[in-house]
């Protein structure tokens, strides 16, 4: 991504904070291993979460990279992998 800079270090904690804000779920209830489907999130909420993650970390993710079968932990591993492989 040209002109993009990573503004935060990728961590489960920072992803959780973004998730709590964008998904409207209190941080204590957003456990890293919980699947997004179990939280009752729809595709629009996950799309908004994806956009926020891309802005925060400067890592491009396809819409299908984040779906209801994922968790914060899954997203963390995906971001780290994509960050290292560009």
TrEMBL record:
PROSITE patterns: CARRIER
InterPro entries listed in its UniProt record: ACP-like_sf, PP-bd_ACP
Domain Carrier as annotated: residue spans: 6-83
Name of protein: Actinorhodin polyketide synthase
High-level lineage: Bacteria, Bacillati, Actinomycetota, Actinomycetes, Mycobacteriales
């Amino acid at each position: 991504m040209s002109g993009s800079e990573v503004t935060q270090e990728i961590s489960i904690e920072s992803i959780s904070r973004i998730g709590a804000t964008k998904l409207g779920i209190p941080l204590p209830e957003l456990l890293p291993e919980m699947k997004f489907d179990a939280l009752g999130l729809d595709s629009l909420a996950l799309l908004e979460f994806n956009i926020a993650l891309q802005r925060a970390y400067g890592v491009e993710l396809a819409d299908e990279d984040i779906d209801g079968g994922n968790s914060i932990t899954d997203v963390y591993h995906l971001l780290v992998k994509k960050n290292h492989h560009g």
